[in-house]
Specification:
This protein is mainly alpha-helical. The chain folds into two domains: 143 residues; 208 residues, MetI-like fold (Orthogonal Bundle). The protein is built from 16 helices and no strands.
């Protein structure tokens, strides 16, 4: 009974109510304007009322959870607006930070209720699976903005997301050219070539046992070589343009595909192989009908790993010589100019492109290997 009472007392809702009460009683800033004082009477009260009502409502009530979520998002937008006020920016007091903590706990409560909702519709389940990480991402970016502006962190150390967004929107042509140079010209060709050659060599090593025994130790050795050691050599061999970056991507993606493909092709059971031979199946018939389906999860695992390795390799390779375009060139150049907003904008482009690339591969994996146990409900 005591443990149950303690768990309820320290739940996210009760803690949100506690911090809302503290925010209501503590000062918002050292010097508050009239509109801040009027708003301050509403925000914490809305959090307290919403959390108390949702504590009385069962978890499966989608309507009340949606209502609380809308209130929290509106109050979060209000906090983001308030933090840019001259009376709060760099001068936020304890009451404001208690309000931010109460908002975070309320959003945590919303995400917990959303994750507990079970729906019959597969579309609704997928929407919930997308909504929860989206809310978590919105909260992290908002918290970043609130902390940087509220504490007055210098832009050189960490710019606010709003400043990065302004740099992103004002430099779209430059960032688009960097994306084409790095991702389209270097990452995509190197990714396709490295994975294709790795898979073909894995097929050869599967037919020739001594190659399998000899290539796997070499693969582990090459995988341990740092990118900063390979990139200058590739620049000397292939020049300063995209070819040297694609060569680095080929080296980084070749051996993960080789190791995973060999491992996947060896997953077939001897009994199943004997059954295929008893049916008179040839090597390629057994390969297509039995061994390749077993290897597909390992192959897609290598593709997803290589999707991030390829982008990292291309960007790092651009640090060692490139035309005056590219994500790596932009990052290294703008750091020297102390233009940190542009550096973070380039990092955002790299993160978005890498995430989209990984997501497309994950969707392709789900479409191709729909029969696998990991995708069954």
């Amino acid at each position: 009974m005591f443990l149950k009472l303690t768990r309820h007392m320290f739940s996210s809702s009760w803690l949100a109510i506690l911090f809302a009460v503290l925010a209501f009683s503590l000062p918002l800033a050292t010097d508050q304007s009239w509109w801040l004082q009027s708003i301050w009477l509403i925000g914490p009260c809305l959090i307290m009322i919403s959390c108390i009502l949702n504590l009385r409502i069962p978890r499966q009530q989608v309507f009340w959870t949606t209502g609380l979520l809308i209130i929290v998002l509106v109050l979060l937008w209000l906090a983001l607006t308030m933090v840019h006020d001259v009376h709060i920016a760099t001068h936020a007091a304890a009451g404001f930070w208690c309000f931010v903590i109460a908002l975070g706990l309320s959003l945590w409560h919303c995400m917990a209720r959303l994750s507990a909702i079970s729906t019959i519709s597969p579309l609704a389940n997928r929407m919930l699976c997308l909504l929860i990480p989206a809310l978590f991402g919105i909260w992290l970016i908002s918290l970043w903005e609130l902390v940087v502006i509220g504490f007055g962190v210098p832009h050189v150390l960490l710019p606010a997301p709003s400043i990065i967004g302004e740099a992103f929107s004002s430099s779209m042509p430059t960032l688009a050219a960097d994306f084409r140079q790095t991702f389209i010209k270097a990452v995509i060709p190197g990714f396709i070539l490295g994975n294709s050659v790795g898979f073909l060599v894995a097929l050869l090593a599967d037919r020739v046992p001594f190659l399998r025994r000899g290539l796997l130790p070499v693969g582990n050795l090459v995988s341990a070589i740092p990118i900063v050691g390979i990139a200058p050599i590739m620049v000397m061999w292939f020049g300063f343009d995209w070819q040297s970056k694609a060569a680095v991507v080929v080296i980084m993606t070749f051996f993960p595909m080789l190791v995973n493909a060999i491992t996947g092709l060896g997953q077939s059971d001897k009994t199943e192989l004997d059954l295929m031979r008893s049916y008179g199946a040839s090597y390629w018939q057994a390969f297509c009908k039995l061994r390749l389906p077993y290897a597909l999860p390992f192959i897609f695992n290598a593709l997803k790993i290589n999707s991030t390795l390829a982008l990292i390799g291309a960007i790092v390779a651009e640090f060692f010589g490139t035309p005056i375009v590219g994500m790596g060139f932009r990052i290294s150049t703008e750091v020297g100019r102390m233009n940190i907003e542009m550096v973070w904008a380039s990092i955002a482009v790299a993160a978005l492109s890498g995430s989209i690339f990984y997501g497309l591969l994950a969707l392709l994996e789900r479409w191709v290997t729909f029969w696998h146990a990991s995708f069954r409900q």
